[in-house]
């Protein structure tokens, strides 16, 4: 029987559930993201990081996305220098700090720690998502990238589902307009720390063997100079420039959906419940678009156009519903908080809208991953 480093025919006959298979490695990165960005999403999804006053969370997110924009570009080069384990571990560790800053804010109401933690998390998120993107687009076999992306997205967004249940359960009987309790933040921190530890189990691409016996990729880690030059070259690649508007759009709507829809329209316990369904909708969306992109037509080009058209039509319809809902605000303010038990039919429309936002997000993000994965096969290029 072939060893882990030997992609022989015998190795190809090994179970797809072996440790060095793409399936297991994608599952591991899914669990890492379940624990870290999955819990971060649940925390953010409550609006204002679970605080009544959204100011600290808004300022922290401004700092977060400022550094994320820089390290989102640099993260691929850092991944190629350090490899997946160190890159992912460094990135995951910053999520614990961010959740801890809101635990601190619960007691002292000082923004500075949250803002600094947000800036540090932006660095970590750039590292984590560059590493995750390299793994997701290069480890799976070429003909099943959509399926693997949907598999990852399902595991990852289960974190948002569980993360939504945490504030829902721990704050169920709190009817006052308070911030979430300390136990909510502590639970998030425990999950995030677990994700950081799990990231050390990710194998480098040279040790990942597909079911047909081929390796994910053969790479020698680059120098800082090489990575800097190759990253700069991306800005002259017309294919990457065409993806830039989608990259801009991919995170643009989160602050609005979390703070101005879920955070503004609903009671404290209902926000947590809504997040369960928002991230559950992401699982449905990713599975649906993954199946469409891998199995709907024989031609990959046709599948791509069908996927883009489907997402475009759904996106237009859902955001039209969002506009209709926004027109019900008075001077940007929603005057009557909705509760899943007490508000009756008034709760249904905004709830379905928020659910649909989650569905569309997963379909859009998965489509973008699939397109990027179609541009190359080696992790060194795809990480950048």
TrEMBL record:
<keyword id="KW-0812">Transmembrane</keyword>
<feature type="transmembrane region" description="Helical">
    <location>
        <begin position="23"/>
        <end position="43"/>
    </location>
</feature>
<feature type="transmembrane region" description="Helical">
    <location>
        <begin position="276"/>
        <end position="293"/>
    </location>
</feature>
<protein>
    <recommendedName>
        <fullName>UNC93-like protein 1</fullName>
    </recommendedName>
</protein>
<feature type="transmembrane region" description="Helical">
    <location>
        <begin position="63"/>
        <end position="81"/>
    </location>
</feature>
<dbReference type="InterPro" id="IPR036259">
    <property type="entry name" value="MFS_trans_sf"/>
</dbReference>
<dbReference type="InterPro" id="IPR010291">
    <property type="entry name" value="Ion_channel_UNC-93"/>
</dbReference>
<dbReference type="Pfam" id="PF05978">
    <property type="entry name" value="UNC-93"/>
</dbReference>
<keyword id="KW-0472">Membrane</keyword>
<keyword id="KW-1133">Transmembrane helix</keyword>
<feature type="transmembrane region" description="Helical">
    <location>
        <begin position="305"/>
        <end position="324"/>
    </location>
</feature>
<feature type="transmembrane region" description="Helical">
    <location>
        <begin position="151"/>
        <end position="172"/>
    </location>
</feature>
<dbReference type="GO" id="GO:0016020">
    <property type="term" value="C:membrane"/>
</dbReference>
<dbReference type="InterPro" id="IPR051617">
    <property type="entry name" value="UNC-93-like_regulator"/>
</dbReference>
<feature type="transmembrane region" description="Helical">
    <location>
        <begin position="111"/>
        <end position="130"/>
    </location>
</feature>
<feature type="transmembrane region" description="Helical">
    <location>
        <begin position="351"/>
        <end position="376"/>
    </location>
</feature>
<feature type="transmembrane region" description="Helical">
    <location>
        <begin position="184"/>
        <end position="203"/>
    </location>
</feature>
<feature type="transmembrane region" description="Helical">
    <location>
        <begin position="88"/>
        <end position="105"/>
    </location>
</feature>
């Amino acid at each position: 029987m072939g060893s882990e480093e030997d992609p022989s025919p015998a190795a190809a006959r090994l179970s797809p559930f072996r440790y060095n298979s793409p399936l297991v490695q994608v599952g591991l990165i899914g669990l890492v993201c379940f624990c870290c960005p999955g819990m971060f999403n649940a925390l953010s999804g409550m609006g204002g990081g679970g605080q009544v006053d959204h100011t600290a969370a808004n300022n922290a997110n401004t700092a977060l996305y400022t550094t994320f924009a820089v390290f989102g570009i640099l993260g691929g080069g850092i991944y190629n220098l350090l490899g997946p384990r160190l890159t992912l571990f460094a990135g995951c560790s910053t999520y614990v700090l961010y959740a801890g800053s809101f635990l601190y804010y619960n007691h002292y109401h000082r923004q500075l720690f949250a803002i600094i933690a947000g800036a540090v998390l932006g660095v970590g998120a750039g590292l984590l998502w560059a590493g995750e993107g390299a793994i997701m687009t290069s480890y799976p076999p070429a003909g099943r990238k959509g399926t693997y992306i949907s598999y990852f997205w399902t595991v990852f967004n289960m974190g948002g589902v569980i993360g939504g249940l945490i504030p829902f359960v721990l704050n169920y009987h709190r009817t006052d307009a308070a911030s979430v309790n300390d136990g909510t933040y502590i639970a998030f921190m425990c999950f995030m720390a677990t994700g950081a530890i799990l990231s050390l189990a990710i194998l480098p691409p040279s040790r990942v063997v597909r079911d047909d016996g081929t390796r994910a990729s053969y790479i020698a880690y680059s120098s800082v100079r090489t990575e800097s030059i190759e990253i700069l070259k991306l800005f002259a690649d017309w294919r990457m420039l065409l993806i830039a508007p989608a990259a801009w759009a991919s995170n643009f709507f989160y602050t609005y959906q979390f703070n101005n829809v879920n955070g503004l329209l609903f009671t404290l316990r209902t926000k947590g419940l809504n997040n369960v369904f928002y991230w559950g909708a992401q699982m449905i969306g990713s599975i649906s678009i993954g199946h469409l992109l891998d199995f709907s037509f024989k031609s990959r080009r046709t599948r791509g156009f069908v996927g883009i058209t489907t997402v475009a039509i759904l996106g237009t319809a859902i955001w039209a519903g969002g506009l209709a809902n926004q027109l019900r605000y008075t001077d940007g303010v929603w005057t009557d908080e909705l509760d899943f038990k007490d508000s009756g039919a008034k709760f249904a429309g905004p709830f379905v809208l928020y659910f649909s936002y989650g569905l569309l997000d997963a379909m859009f993000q998965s489509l973008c991953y699939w397109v990027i994965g179609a541009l190359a096969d080696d992790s060194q290029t795809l990480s950048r």
